[in-house]
Design brief:
Two copies of one chain form a homodimer.
Chain A (H helix, E strand, L loop, with lengths): L8 H4 L17 H8 L5 H10 E4 L3 E5 L5 E4 L1 H11 L6 H4 L1 E2 L7 E2 L5 E9 L1 H8 L4 H19 L5 E8 L4 E10 L1 E7 L2 H4 L3 H4 L11 E7 L2 E2 L7 E2 L9 E6 L10 H30 L3 H29 L1 H19 L2 H7 L2 H24 L6 H15 L16 H8 L7 H19 L4 H7 L4 H11 L5 H17 L3 H43 L12 E6 L3 E3 L2 E3 L2 E3 H7 L10 H6 L8 E6 L11 E3 L4 E9 L17 E5 H11 L3 H6 L7
Parallel strand pairs in A: 12-20
Antiparallel strand pairs in A: 1-2, 1-6, 2-3, 3-10, 4-9, 5-9, 6-8, 7-8, 9-10, 10-11, 13-14, 13-19, 15-16, 17-18, 18-21, 19-20, 20-21
Chain lengths: ~675, ~675
């Protein structure tokens, strides 16, 4: 599997050491696992695991846990769904949700579950298509070839295909998924227990959260039949036990060049944190206006708080001078190796400098790129709908291979699901977000920038936000459907003020995106590919690619760690949960758990830490033993895992999961969720 | 004046070049000004300017502009006073304030004006007192000697004395001031014109602000007689004219070592910005709750927005790789020079490493230091009052030279003025700030930190904030006076909940402060002193010390600059103001200026840029010509001046002032402020 060149042995030592790695299923180092843990996953085992894992579009992982489409994930992965199904009178975030019978299962307005069917290597096809091209030509050729490949692969509406760029351009794989768009909520606990400890305990360990939920995928209005699926283990995770995590880590930056890391350290991360910090302050105070303000903004607040803390940890890793020096040394080693051979130097030698220059270009355009394109709208749903409509009017008239990539034929189902989602829109929150966005636009581009003048005219950001939000009819899915089905003419004829706002921005937004794709992204892809090849030549695929929100497998063991001289045990128990409860948010237990206290076994394992290498996007991943039996559900990493974006430190980087025994104890003693227990094969008492 | 060693000429080139420098009055480079501008300030001229300049305690500069105590400064320097004198019904921030007759002048609740009388060099005294001492012993000896010197100097209640540490410990000067504590508001325009363009235009140029205000100092209930004072120039600032600024730059960091700059870049600045960004979001949303919420929080919002933008600019300078490399090269040059001579190497060679280690220590304690001591309370007035009371109970019982430095006898008047200020306290805002503070305390120290547990118990930050704010009686100046006059026993007996909160924190707060003073501050002082001596030995006092909120003189000229290839003219005119007005905040003119439009001369100069080297704290400084005549009032720097914290770039770093002719045109045509015009010698029509 690994193509090691013996002469380079010294270079390799210290690379994929330890429990590090978010490995692809088509290049899993079974021999390495065997060497460390005496178990070598077979191809059959790997296939079973791959097909039992699931992805939740938008950012989570999950697993199939019954033959009738039952899917286990985290509460925080179904949080949006639970909020969207709630009303001011009936708040499932507060009360939890349990469908005691099949008809009570409720469809999530905007959830899609994917199951990975097949991985095909298309590196050669893409390399051929872009050979000898640069800048815009490279980008166009690549985009056209990807659109073609994906369209050819997506043979039915419920098949989703993505070309995935691995190793920073070193390898392209075509991932084919089965797509489930009818997803129904089965069980979600109260948020007070799912996210017990709230933001203060987030990314910390020891931990006491019941962050688990179940949904079911349907086909043709009936529970989908799935095979294979993962069974429950007899006892759950044991200290020292070998554990695997199959899930979808969203993204890592371990292969970035030093120039790119500097950009992350000095610009990308701090500036995103400034923005998130301000949004945190805004949301905290927004919630002070009343309980309904809290309810409608809680999902956003959760995600903002969560991203904030995650990025703080990531930034801290990069400002750590020892850590950064290691990155510099690693790059230097590879560059020296390239330089040692004139032929290699000719092929790869310039790649780092080209990337450094592209990063300089990015730095110069970053503010416009963020405000006009990547972060435009600052989270407003209406803005997203308006942009999808405005752009679909332009893009869908073009040939498939010339469109912006998110409008390629193969991506149509996602566009439509997103655009036509029945999820409620909250005008007060929209107004606050659009005000925030327009204020930032003026603040960062300056009041004299032509685009700012065109957008605001003589209005204040707040007045304009109020006008476009209160005047827009796009909150209604019917209105959006009519416009979308009316096609370009209907959309262009619409005078909806949010659509008009988006149209005013769109020329410059597209222009900056185009420049980014031509002068930054394509240069980084092309030269990243060269560096990746140099790395392959030096190390083989004994390294794993950076995470890309595609299915990966990591191995490790149930294991504590030391922190500031103290030993942290790997498993927490229910007794600790009750000790930690103060009665005040976010340490307030819901009534169900308080009532159940006399019944539960306080020695039941609740959460646990393991040395698996994961990152954001892995939330909801199954964690299982060598017999592919569930021992828990991953929901977090500890604080030291946050630097995992840039590198894995086995000494203290830990995955945090809800223990399978804790899950069962809750379903039995707190929720009396018999139907669910039976489906999990745990109906009978013990 | 300068003690140049000829052999070092190459080293010196490029040091205090150009218009750079915030020079002390006892070491002003008149010869340099003469070489560049053909004018050599005499000692008499310098003395006159020194005695005509004024400082506003808390962070601004000002000047005496009439023999009867009239003081000119910025609107934003009297903003707190105007807000404190306002009520919901009568808002001087919105309507402006003008005392058409003497009895209408209104006393500012918490303003102190200082006039610098004398500077004495006490370096030798202090060096002798601390000789051979380190850590705690060094700190104690230094503290005791400073308390003694200040007490000896402060011969009357209206004399204020500060020992000032210059050149990072290379020189200690004793500054003796006359103190005016009865300060009355004479004129403040509407904020809509004083801060026209708001945050978007802040730190930008071209600019159109009427950021000027007048107060008067009183003695024994009557206008104070002052001499000397600055007259008005005939025509105001002309393009190319030599200009001086006498004011109190708050602080610069141009002499920091590379280790200290790294700490600023990676920790101090970004983390302060995260905090400020969150506070910005909180305040923006707080203001959405209604006009009264806006009124009571506007002063704080102004200062938060202003600091935020300033620190963003400062951070940008440090992440600029060229800029940082220069700093590294400068340090290396001096270190190489030290190393070249074994004797020098022995004396100075270790200093940089000692500072680097102290900076590491600071990094490890920074979060506790910020939360428990330096940033404790997050701006809550009640918290400040409670801490002043609690600490005065402990400190005032100790001998003068053993107290925390802010409680030394010589500082008592400031403590009392601050503590007994009649400024209103706004409970809603207090509650929001204390909630923010307690939330940050828990977030950053973690819910399991003993001090967090002691403070919060089982309460949420918000519940505790509400309790201590609503339960505290410290909003009343009478209550505070009673407690203060009751002495330690009365204070210790008080069960005021805000006092109890402060007491719960105080043990750990004092402990971290003590560790900081012993292990960080004293090491940096001591080794900074060594580096400063090395620098003197190499360059003489041809360099100026970093700013320390003490009186400095800078020179320059009225001068535009280029930005992104475009030429920016140095002077704006009233016509531009009216063109920029959109009718919407923050580009909405107040009614007075709209009404006056037909009367004003649109060609009148309004604001202008000059190459003087200033920084925050210089707000309100007089800017004057070589005849010591006022040509304007400094109120801002352009965006490129923000990096001035770390270094001056003559090409684009600019001071921004209101033009003296613009000031007069407003007083005449908009405000018809005859009494004021007469006092300025401009009563007669033209």
């Amino acid at each position: 599997m690994t193509r090691l060149l013996p002469a380079l042995f010294l270079l390799i030592a210290g690379l994929a050491r330890a429990d590090e790695g978010m490995w692809t299923f088509n290049d899993f180092p079974s021999n390495l696992v065997n060497a460390r843990y005496g178990f070598s996953p077979s191809q059959e085992w790997l296939t079973k695991v791959q097909l039992s894992a699931a992805r939740i579009a938008g950012g989570c992982s999950a697993s199939f846990v019954s033959p009738t489409g039952l899917v286990m994930t985290n509460h925080h992965c179904v949080r949006d769904c639970a909020q969207q199904l709630s009303t001011a009178q009936n708040d499932y975030i507060v009360k939890g949700f349990y469908a005691a019978s099949a008809p009570q299962e409720r469809q999530c307005p905007a959830m899609e579950v994917n199951k990975l069917l097949r991985i095909t290597d298309v590196t050669n096809v893409l390399t051929k298509a872009t050979q000898g091209k640069e800048g815009a030509a490279f980008r166009d050729a690549q985009r056209a070839e990807i659109a073609r490949l994906e369209k050819e692969c997506a043979t039915a509406p419920d098949i989703r295909c993505d070309v995935v760029n691995l190793y920073q351009g070193g390898m392209y794989n075509l991932y084919q998924y089965q797509r489930f768009q009818d997803v129904r909520l089965v069980f979600a606990p109260e948020e007070a227990i799912a996210f017990f400890g709230g933001d203060p305990d987030n990314f910390e360990f020891p931990r006491y959260d019941y962050d688990v939920a179940f949904v079911r995928v349907y086909q043709d209005g009936k529970p989908a039949k799935v095979d294979p699926w993962l069974r429950w283990s007899a006892k759950g995770a044991q200290p020292g036990e070998l554990t695997f995590v199959a899930g979808h880590p969203g993204g890592t930056s371990r292969l970035l060049t030093v120039a790119q890391l500097l950009y992350q350290r000095d610009y990308a991360l701090p500036e995103r944190l400034f923005q998130l910090a301000q949004l945190r302050g805004l949301l905290d105070e927004f919630q002070q206006r009343g309980p309904e303000f809290t309810r409608i903004s809680n999902s956003l607040k959760f995600s903002v708080d969560n991203s904030y803390k995650a990025l703080v940890g990531r930034r801290e890793a990069l400002v750590d001078r020892d850590f950064f020096s290691k990155k510099v040394a690693e790059e230097q080693k590879l560059r020296d190796w390239v330089k040692a051979d004139p032929e290699r130097q000719k092929r790869y030698g310039q790649a780092w400098d080209h990337i450094a220059r592209a990063t300089d270009t990015l730095r110069a355009m970053r503010i416009r790129l963020r405000l006009l394109e990547q972060g435009a709208g600052a989270g407003s749903d209406l803005f997203v709908y308006a942009r999808l409509l405005a752009r679909s009017a332009d893009e869908l008239s073009k040939p498939n291979e010339q469109r912006l990539k998110e409008f390629a034929d193969a991506r149509k189902p996602e566009v439509e699901q997103q655009l036509l989602s029945p999820a409620p829109v909250y005008p007060k929150l929209e107004e606050a977000l659009v005000t925030f966005y327009l204020t930032k636009l003026r603040e960062q581009l300056g009041p004299d920038a032509p685009v700012v003048k065109r957008v605001l005219g003589t209005q204040s950001p707040q007045a304009l936000a109020r006008k476009v939000v209160s005047g827009s009819r796009l909150a209604s899915p019917q209105v959006r459907r009519q416009l979308y089905q009316g096609g370009p003419e209907a959309i262009r004829a619409s005078k909806d003020p949010m659509l008009e706002l988006v149209r005013t921005l769109d020329g410059e937004a597209r222009a900056v995106r185009e420049r980014f794709e031509e002068e930054v992204e394509s240069v980084i892809d092309q030269n990243g590919e060269l560096i990746a090849r140099a790395r392959f030549e030096a190390y083989g695929t004994s390294t794993y690619p950076d995470a890309t929100f595609t299915l990966r497998l990591s191995f490790g063991q149930v294991k504590g760690y030391s922190e500031e001289g103290k030993t942290v045990e790997p498993i927490t128990r229910l007794a600790g949960l009750y000790e930690r409860a103060t009665g005040e948010d976010p340490f307030r237990l819901p009534p169900s758990w308080l009532r159940a206290k006399p019944r539960v076994d306080l020695q039941t394992p609740f959460d646990f830490a393991s040395s698996n290498d994961i990152i954001g996007g892995n939330s909801g991943s199954p964690i299982f033993n060598k017999d592919a039996e569930i021992v828990g559900v991953v929901f977090d990493g500890n604080r030291r895992s946050l630097g995992g974006d840039f590198g894995f430190d086995e000494a203290s980087n830990r995955t945090v999961s809800v223990h399978s025994e804790g899950i069962l104890e809750g379903l039995r003693k707190v929720y009396n969720a018999r139907r669910l227990l039976e489906e999990l094969g745990r109906g009978g008492g013990g």
